[in-house]
Request: fold
Amino acid sequence: MTDMRLVVVGAAGRMGQALVRAVTAMDGVTLSAAIEREGSAALGRDAGELAGLGPLGVRITDDPLTAFAASEGVLDFTTPKASLWFAELAAQARIVHIIGTTGWVDGELEPLKAAARHARLVKSGNMSLGVNLLAALVRKAAAALGPDFDLEIVEMHHRHKVDAPSGTALLLGEAAAAGRGIALAEHSVRVRDGHTGPRPAGDIGFATLRGGSVVGDHTVILAGDGERVELSHKAEDRQIFARGAVKAALWARDKKPGLYSMADVLGLND
Ligand SMILES: NC(=O)C1=CN([C@@H]2O[C@H](COP(=O)(O)OP(=O)(O)OC[C@H]3O[C@@H](n4cnc5c(N)ncnc54)[C@H](OP(=O)(O)O)[C@@H]3O)[C@@H](O)[C@H]2O)C=CC1
Ligand SMILES: O=C(O)C1=N[C@H](C(=O)O)C[C@H](O)C1
Reply:
């Protein structure tokens, strides 16, 4: 089979550069194009040079339409607004769309479901093997320990992160809620301040820390009477997410249109 031609959108960003490095390093894929927004200072620069690899002969442009027409898949870690636009374009071009973007709000996922009627989308708040395994463990732990164990999710990220709680924290919250057989939206507590009163049973709490250069730390605490279980993942290098995204693109290459998760890619739902 020929190498899968992948375009990286948001190619000048932290994850965009990691994706360019991963596509270049991994077998079975080749970098077809690199996209940034109109007016970006990165336009015209070589995507490889920007990612610290030396020249690759792929200049960054602001023309996704042409890039998507010449590609089989798009790797997208940008913003919800940009990802929704890229989803429309990817569906029109009938190419694979891997979405790592986080910070989605209610209602924004509906257009993605529409796009998935024609396109193969893989979307996850965390593309690493470790976090997706952690989610499976959290689901099991929440089911086994039940609501007598209070569930709290703590995350810490670098000072540049703009959304909270992290996509990963929410993914872990969904896993915990699934383990308990409840809807996360009806039980999640994202902020506590002032005289909150005692903790209501069944809540799933989120605590957000921001600072420095932390790539991504997550801990799920299940606190019972007299004992506590803590399940943690610490990301040390953004390449784990980038490699996961490339794996997802290769996996989706021969799949039917649909909205898939990283657990599907990794076979954790089997
Ligand atoms: N699922 C996962 O495994 C992971 C997800 N993430 C998520 O990925 C996203 C990006 O993170 P990060 O790389 O740190 O953020 P950055 O801000 O470093 O990168 C985002 C890039 O996307 C660009 N961009 C924004 N809008 C457009 C557009 N319309 N067209 C083209 N490019 C655009 C930005 O350009 P500009 O700066 O000009 O706005 C920027 O270069 C976040 O939502 C983050 O949470 C991060 C790591 C792992
Ligand atoms: O913005 C980041 O950096 C990260 N975002 C993702 C998230 O919101 O969970 C994944 C990872 O933790 C890094």
About this structure: The mean pLDDT is 97. The pocket of NDP (ligand 1) is lined by residues 9-10, 12-16, 35-37, 40, 77-79, 82, 100-103, 124-127, 163, 167, 241 (CB under 6 Å).
